[in-house]
């Protein structure tokens, strides 16, 4: 196209690499535009319409889009507002994220749980991350009562029947154990209300504490409860890839 922005300039402006490093990415065959591999340095693209990927991960060039990771504290509700005046994640955003309105929260956690919630004004990405058909996995650390037998993982992978249908985990592991309680890691792509608590209770191991550590490729890491951070460009690109955008 005669108009538009040179591809290497767009990659540089998006923070992917310096102009020179971006040129090498192009000539090395690592960059796609609208599904087509591009190796010509003179290529121009429309930053408002073209879909650009580097190594398969989408490059986000719209600077108005916001992508945040929140570590929801225990005792806080997963809503942007609460008509009963209870503390909610909207309160945190109002005080700590200036000028960033109309954010969607991706994934709920009950008030007794803590952990990762994504916040974005990218409606299409939020919709796909929450839609069960895209099967984006979520990982939790749960402290359960009692000593967990080795056979529990096999049982949970096979599926447990709940009052609203069967649910099976994608992965399960015992992380640590002390007398009277066990720390387990559970991964599943279900999004039903209190699904991890209900699943483990149905298997005979009530949850005493629950933390969500991962949503797809994004990890909570060492974020403190109540803290908010901006996702890195690589993380955003991986989220897009996870939902086929």
UniProtKB/TrEMBL annotation:
Family matches, as Pfam families: PseudoU_synth_2, S4
Alphabetical list of InterPro entries matching this protein: PsdUridine_s_RsuA/RluB/E/F_cat (IPR042092), PsdUridine_synth_cat_dom_sf (IPR020103), PsdUridine_synth_RsuA/RluA (IPR006145), PsdUridine_synth_RsuA/RluB/E/F (IPR000748), PsdUridine_synth_RsuA/RluB_CS (IPR018496), RsuA_PseudoU_synthase (IPR050343), S4_RNA-bd (IPR002942), S4_RNA-bd_sf (IPR036986)
EC number(s) on file: 5.4.99.-
Catalytic reaction equation(s): a uridine in RNA = a pseudouridine in RNA
GO terms of biological process kind: enzyme-directed rRNA pseudouridine synthesis
Keyword tags: Isomerase
Sample GO molecular function, one term: RNA binding
Family recorded in the similarity comment: Belongs to the pseudouridine synthase RsuA family.
NCBIfam families cross-referenced by the UniProt entry: pseudouridine synthase
Protein name, entry field: Pseudouridine synthase
Organism, scientific name: Mycobacterium heckeshornense
